[in-house]
Design goal:
290 residues; 20% helix; 6-stranded antiparallel beta sheet; Rossmann fold; NADP; Tumour Suppressor Smad4
Length: 290
């Protein structure tokens, strides 16, 4: 019988030279009869061949394991979502909200998933396109959020927003976040946005420090086309998951819409999202619980 996930790509923290966790994961996979694909530096350090490019790993893998924090997971998964390969996240960072498997339990939890006992958690992504003078100048993908934010000068930005070609609002604020449900527990949460269950098909629009008491977050259908036109500012930046960015000028239009590919995260079968909210964000704690 063919093994599930016969070829597994493994990624670690981008700039880390500590390859011991990757060695442990690789040995587990090899002992279970699976082929392991690593990038060049860790492969050479662990004497596991010459290594592969990210594109080669994406094309060849049936499963990708990411060892690092949530930032590492976001960076790898959004760049490789178009290969439609499922991901496992091992937490070696601070919060570990998406990478929910603790590093000290990774052998046990990975073994459980490889044996077929897992829960598949499918997350939507956003694609953003920056238009200037009628031409596309930048395009990227986000798992959490696309954000237009004020720049170093500290002045507010002014934007007009339309949804599916219908005018929605004009705003003066420090920024505007377009968030997925996954991103609702990230930057969006810190500026007063609602928490959205990951499988809910929606997109959030959340102003950052708006200069109006009436400007509140809004939840719209996932399949919406959002167009943000920058009408006034000193300087501003367009961010994707707060990792990649592009300079914004007055008159630029940012189009945000659903990305056609999704990120599939494999969790141990006992995974409970509400438990994650309680443990990681201290949600729904009573005063007596503290």
């Amino acid at each position: 019988m063919t093994k599930e996930f016969s070829t597994v790509g493994v990624f670690g923290k981008r700039d880390s030279l500590d390859y011991e966790p990757l060695r442990i994961i690789a040995e587990l996979l090899i002992k279970s009869g699976r082929q392991v694909l690593l990038e060049k530096k860790p492969a050479e350090a662990l004497s596991l061949g010459e290594g592969f490019t990210r594109d080669e790993i994406g094309k060849k893998s049936d499963l990708i394991i990411i060892y690092g924090g949530d930032g590492t997971f976001l960076g790898v998964s959004r760049r490789m979502a178009h290969y439609d390969v499922p991901f496992i996240g091992i937490n070696a960072g601070r919060l570990g909200f998406v990478t929910d498997i603790p590093s000290d339990k990774m052998v046990e939890e990975i073994s459980e998933i490889l044996s077929g006992h897992y829960y598949t958690d499918t997350r939507c992504l956003l694609e953003g396109i920056q238009i200037r003078d009628g031409k596309e100048i930048y395009r990227n993908v986000a798992v959490n959020e696309i954000c237009v934010s004020r720049g170093n000068s500290g002045g507010m930005i002014e934007v007009s927003v339309s949804v599916n070609k219908l005018p929605m609002s004009r705003q003066r604020a420090d920024g505007l976040i377009v968030s997925t449900p996954t991103g609702s527990t990230a930057y969006a949460l810190s500026v007063g946005g609602p928490m959205i269950y990951p499988s809910v098909a929606c997109t959030l629009l959340i102003p950052v420090a708006p200069h109006s008491l009436a400007n509140r977050p809004i939840v719209i259908p996932e399949n919406s086309l959002i167009e943000i036109t920058v009408t006034d500012m000193r300087d501003a930046t367009l961010y994707f998951d707060m990792q990649d960015n592009s300079e914004v000028l007055v008159g630029d239009i940012i189009k945000a819409s659903p990305y056609p590919h999704r990120v599939k995260i494999l969790h141990p079968s006992r995974h409970n999202y509400f438990d994650t909210l309680c443990k990681k964000l201290h949600w729904n704690y009573l005063p007596t619980d503290r």
